[in-house]
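Run folding on both entries below.
>entry_1
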Amino acid sequence: MIDFTAIIQNTNAYRMIQSDKQKGSLSHAYLVLTSDKDMLEDYVKLLVSLMCCEDNGVCLTCRTCRLIADKMHPDVIFYPQSKAKKDKDKEKGAKAKADTVCTEDIVSLIEESFIKPIECDKKVFVILNAQDMNVQAQNKLLKTLEEPPKNVHIVLGATSEFSLLPTVKSRVKKLEIPPFDNQTIFKALENECPDHQKLNLAVSCGDGTIGKALSLYGDKSLQNLTELVLDMLVNMNSSKDVLKYSTKITEQKVDLSQFLSVLQLLLRDLLVLAQKKQALALNKQAIDELEKTKNFNTGSLIHALETVNEAEKRKKFNMNETMLLEWLLFQILEGKHKWQKL
């Protein structure tokens, strides 16, 4: 089981709710933002448990915490609700998106908000994937979001705030859970993922999210990509090779962000090997192949890593990916030849 509690406890989101709780001034509405779509629900559950648990922090073992974790607590209600979704699908005669809150959910939330809590001193309504709410649902929620009944709290969990109406955002207290550094994610997953070489690679390509790192850990295509990049580093020696590998990468529809992450990791390990520090290599399974790359020296590797960093910056400005890829490979090749002459 993944223990991400310690990670969340070190975020400003956790500290803000804990502070509000200690002061007896929990906000009537929070917006929890994280780019980790796979862990959104787990993060929100933990923060809601913090709001409701009798401990100063969150114990995760009491009845309240356990019921919230199972989405079974009578005073903590999650949306969308399956029944409302099925009714809506039947009425429209179409398959609606399973994780989208609809107007019927908001109507249910409003009605439920006037019913007193059963076990706790408060009621909490959780809307997951709030970024997918349509305008009608958001407008329906506005009045309750601004002035909910006494002891009622609304928590919106979203992967982005851009689709939310300004009137919704102005009525909530925003809590952001930022991407985590690789070391933090590795530590959280090392017991769940015993192959630490594979985990290092997954974490490096995980964009600072636990969910993506976990997904990549079980993805065979990541290993295939690693083998492709290794082959490229060993055998790319001419402009003709650049075109060959750029074409191969494009034809295989490789995710450019993953490609850059894998390339950066292997170049970093090459630099470690060049400095005779083999024990510091992250992907030890690739060492034998990396040692075949005889045309790189320390200067060309530093140049290559700087070029990858520049490619990542250019990618953010929506540069054509094929052109960016070719530019990157040519720069690495040119740097390799340049530093061989020095």
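>entry_2
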Amino acid sequence: MATYKEIQAYVKKECGFVPKSCWIAHMKEICGLPVRQAPNRHSADKRKVPCPPKKRDAIKKAFVHFNMI
């Protein structure tokens, strides 16, 4: 499984932006991948900063590149 830093570097190289780590975690949840709860996260049921719909394909492309899905 790729690290968040590796996913961020890949997306930056391929798509020209650096995804926030919370976006990556949200996409992992959407794709059914395991996600640990961040110690600074207050609410387990609602995301404060969900991944914007227009950024999701780029992050999903990184998951496929790293054979995560």
